[in-house]
Specification:
CATH class of the largest domain: Alpha Beta
Shape: globular
Strand content: 25-35%
Number of helices: 6
Number of strands: 11
Strand order of the largest sheet: 2-3-1-5-4-9-10-11
Number of domains: 2
CATH topology of the largest domain: Alpha-Beta Plaits
Largest sheet: 8 strands, mixed
CATH architecture of the largest domain: 2-Layer Sandwich
Helix content: 25-40%
């Protein structure tokens, strides 16, 4: 199957540089993308989320399914930078913060065998908005793969067993991606293309609120309707990439 034909992906957002403001920006990015998913008629569900004290997003992973989902979103992977006055800023200064997006095609990977002895498995209570525990039973699962250091978690299902199965599925996809990166080049360089070190300088796109501007640094192109774009109207950016690659 061509990579452009993948109909399901794992979509991951992580707050980067900037503390609480980075987490709030990650939340705004998730809102933007989820609105875009809805406009496209795609299905999505959050598999795991970790929130900050003010309701921002530290990490989030979701499963997204629909026609052309990988083809249309693959260029969204990387470090996104925001320039704005944070709600926590009292002197009116503009801050720069980042959040990273990773896009993994969802694959059927029965051939990837994972040894039970290579796993550290932790069970905990699933949390809802604001970090409150929504279950009295520890149904959420966090798995660390010791050989690679990859950590995945899932809390979307009611049963511990089902969350464990989903977390292992995500883990297999991440291991597969890591193996592909080893095949096609340096692992460090390949991951840098995805999320970099989340430093402000390693950005693919800047969202400048004072100037109402979104700039994609790979296309060297800007749009002056940031509010509309943050409402999920990403078509013009995606079309610009498709035009460049056609």
């Amino acid at each position: 199957m061509s990579e452009n034909n993948f109909q399901s992906i794992y979509f991951e957002i992580r707050a980067g540089v900037g503390g609480e403001e980075a987490a709030l920006f990650a939340r705004d990015l998730w809102r933007m993308y989820s609105k875009f998913f809805e406009k496209r008629g795609w299905n999505y569900r959050i598999l795991d989320i970790s929130e900050s004290d003010l309701g921002g997003i530290k990490t989030l992973i979701a499963e997204v399914s629909g026609p052309q989902v990988y083809e249309l979103l693959k260029q969204e992977a990387g470090v996104h930078r925001v320039q704005r006055i944070p709600v926590t800023e009292k002197s009116g200064r503009i801050h720069t913060s980042t959040a990273s997006v990773a896009i993994l095609p969802k694959l059927s990977l029965p051939q990837i065998q994972i040894k039970e002895s290579d796993l550290e498995i932790e069970f905990y209570r699933a949390s809802g908005p604001g970090g409150q525990n929504v279950n009295k039973v520890e149904t959420a699962v966090r798995i660390r793969h010791k050989p690679t250091g990859i950590v995945v978690a899932c809390q979307s299902e009611r049963s511990q067993q089902r969350n464990r199965e989903l977390a292992l599925e995500i883990l297999k996809n991440k291991i597969w991606q890591m193996e592909q990166e080893k095949i096609y080049g340096s692992l460090t360089e390949a991951r840098k293309k995805q999320i970099g070190s989340q430093e402000r300088s390693e950005k693919i796109r800047t969202y400048n609120f004072p100037q109402n501007r979104v700039t994609d640094h790979r296309l060297n192109k800007s749009w002056y309707d940031l509010e509309e774009i943050m409402e999920g109207k990403l078509d013009k950016i995606i079309e610009a990439f498709q035009k460049q690659n056609s």
